[in-house]
Amino acid sequence: MKQLAALQQQGRRSNSFRSNSSPLDATVDGAIKSPATIFWLFLHGLCCLISLVLGFRFSRLVFFLLFSASPSPSTTTIYSALRTTLPAISSPQERNVSADGGGSRVVVGRHGILIRPWPHPDPAEVMKAHRIIERVQAEQRSQYGVKNPRTVIAITPTYVRTFQTLHLTGVMHSLMNVRYDLVWIVVEAGGTTNETASLIAKSGLKTIHIGVDGKMPLLWEDRHKFESRMRLHALRIVREKKLDGIVMFADDSNMHSLELFDEIQNVKWIGAVSVGILAHSGGSEEGDLLMQESDADEKDEKKSQIPVQGPACNASGNLAGWHTFDTQPFLERSAIYIGDRAVVLPRKLEWAGFALNSRLVWEDVEGNPVWVKDLLEIGKDGEDIESPLSLLKDTSVVEPLGSCGRKILLWWLRVEARADSKFPASWIIDPPLDITVPAKRTPWPDAPPELPSYVEKVTTIPENTEKRPAKSGSKRKRSSRSKRKHNAKVLDIRASTKHAGDN
Amino acid sequence: MRNLRWALIMCFFLESSLRAETFKLKRSQKTERISGSAGDVLEDDPVGRLKVFVYKLPSKYNKKMVEKEERCLHHMFAAEIYMHRFLLSSPVRTLNPQEADWFYVPVYTTCDLTRDGLPLPFKSPRVMRSAIQLISTTSPYWNRTQGADHFFIVPHDFGACFHYQEDIAVERGILPLLERATLVQTFGQRNHVCQREGSITIPPYAPPQKMQTHVIPPTTPRAIFVYFRGLFYDAGNDPQGGYYARGARASVWENFKNNPLFDISTEHTPTYYEDMQRAIFCLCPLGWAPWSPRLVEAVVFGCIPVIIADHIVLPFADAIPWEDIGVFVHERDVPKLDTILTTIPIDVILRKQRLLANPSMKQAMLFPQPAQPGDAFHQILNGLARKLPHRDDVFLKPGEPFLNWTAGPLADLKPW
Hints:
The structure holds 2 protein chains of 2 kinds.
Chain A: H1 2-15, H2 21-25, H3 35-54, H4 58-67, H5 87-90, E1 95-96, E2 107-108, H6 123-144, E3 152-158, H7 164-176, E4 182-189, H8 194-201, E5 206-212, H9 220-241, E6 246-249, E7 255-256, H10 258-264, E8 270-272, E9 274-277, E10 291-293, E11 308-313, E12 319-325, E13 354-357, E14 399-400, H11 402-405, E15 408-412
Parallel strand pairs in A: 3-4, 3-6, 4-5, 8-14, 9-15
Antiparallel strand pairs in A: 1-2, 6-13, 7-15, 8-13, 9-11, 10-12, 11-12
Chain B: H1 2-27, E1 52-54, H2 63-68, H3 79-88, E2 102-104, H4 124-138, H5 141-145, E3 150-154, H6 166-172, E4 182-185, E5 200-201, H7 208-212, E6 224-229, H8 248-256, E7 262-265, H9 272-277, E8 279-285, H10 294-300, E9 304-308, H11 322-325, E10 327-328, H12 337-342, H13 346-357, H14 359-364, H15 376-386
């Protein structure tokens, strides 16, 4: 600011001398030293000193101010509050670039950096931008995505047990995010129950809830077989109702990616995707999970760390065989019954990895390929249908999806609590807990050792009530949770509430 | 009776033409035809419309330069080298100068690079002078028109002004010897000393193979609103700020660094091309010169270019309607950039994307090897063909002044 003031002063002083420039440029005659020349010399020296201080040719500024014909400072004199470049200083460095006068020109030189007073996003504009983004993405999908999306028919076998809510909620949320029309067929073992019905009603999807008689068996082997029966039953419903679309099998404990639903839209008749097998045990050892190619031509085993089930392609991208899960390392320690702590093994090829055109199961449709068997033929005698491949006379017609099985679009996982574990019905605690009694004679094999002495083991009814939804299941990975209050009288952790839990 | 029959025939004709119209409309929904002020000329074939004679200059003007400096083939000024190679084997080339419409002088003026790869323009005027001296003494075609039917490719920052700093380039002006010749340059700005009317503006060279290898599937949703990678301040050459890019880039940074919609930074991301394909708008602000390869990259990857450079002339401006394709923002409006971009109507945005998706648009911006129909080489030839036939004053009449060979700064007169 001081400099500006000094400048203005100088400018005013030099304004009074109109012919300022010529004396500056003229050579001084050494012989004549009149007071005028001395004065001019002095002024010249002063201008030089000022130029030294300011760092540019001060005389140019004066010249410009006096003799500039067409002022065009408008392009350069807008300055932000933060940038403190002085307006007057930059003008001598301007040079009009145009050869002809008039018309638009861009000025070379130092320009101000324009910053608006509040350089932060405006929420209304952010929302507008997001709407633009959504619209552009919808346009992209309609142009490059699936042309004629078909209805997805998801078949889920389920039954009421502790982990049902957990698993079914996961599948439900995945299906709710699918962008295509969806029909969800939920097959329940032991007949339809209100519990399952209320759960799936929350989805808002079009659901078909059917029941299959018979309790879900305790052993994993039997459970796999029973589930296959349930899926066949669902396929019969598809046949009866002549539902049109793509059938996929969404097991309730699996995890599906949304890309899966985009990929199965490409199915012509029957397609297979790669399924990641998460066969983990709660134990400390995790064996090498091997992958075996059961290819007709090549019989070499490939040892790899990837547990994947799915189609295997040859070099030209055609189906050459199947990757299946190698159960060799687990033969001794696999899970036998539901709730067992060992690894649950999948079958050779899981249903979940397949997607069919629903017309394959319709009866007598013209245009159906010759290699499909009629749905009612298979499973008639109660035999075990391991995978939808039993529907085909010739398994080589399966289309590999997900860039020929390279993309894993869903994950298979089986996690269950013990079959006799109790849980509150619909996960609503009614009536509220008021008495908690320690169960000294719990049958759980992994009950923790007695607590250290500072914890009082109270066998009588405590004064303060606490609400503790103790989940008394023994899951491999997680230990059962309990809330413990410091100051209150603490009860045994393993106190289980005996409620009328359905089973 | 006869009138009735004619009326019926007219009715049928009208109906069929209307149906054809609707059919055309339906088909144009995916991509739209590009037609600029010169008409629908992007796909014109120049073969047969013009003949070009290529001078044979000693290799010190072209081949030896490339041999000395390999990097010339990959930087953004490589168009001069590839154009020469294209013309040597093109069907428009003629070996008979008598029948040629245009004469091409293959001199590479931007092949003298620093250690960091930036071209030094200090010798370029001398190189050019020397080349013109050679052709004017060895063949009569320069002298009869004083270069009016010759064209030169000058892809440097400010074209034939041969300097990277704008004020010095302006002071020098276009090389006096090139006064009458047609200049094919990347620089284009209205009312600028270094831009002459009649020059052809071309896109800078961007490596087509490299861009091809980074293409991602078109189903990938465009989730970035505005994208930019590059400098905002040039600390080395302009520490105070305000000089580089006339303060526009700094303004972009200061106003929008906190804005989540703007993905802007100076990082050298390895996924630069992929990110452009996931963005809706790509900023193409001016730097030391108004043009940049970002425009080419944005067009190739389908990202709407937001051009922040006052009075810029974009490549092939008569063939490509840039107003319909890109968004032009004045440098003084940069603080309002977010408002400007969010208030563009959505159907305008979708139309711009459709125009960008047109393959002939992308092809016109590239210099592929080998040349393909509709690419930038052909657009240059089309531009030259559109300037034909030459006006009468191309040929100098006796008594008209010749070019002044001593004009220009003294340093340029030194022989090379």
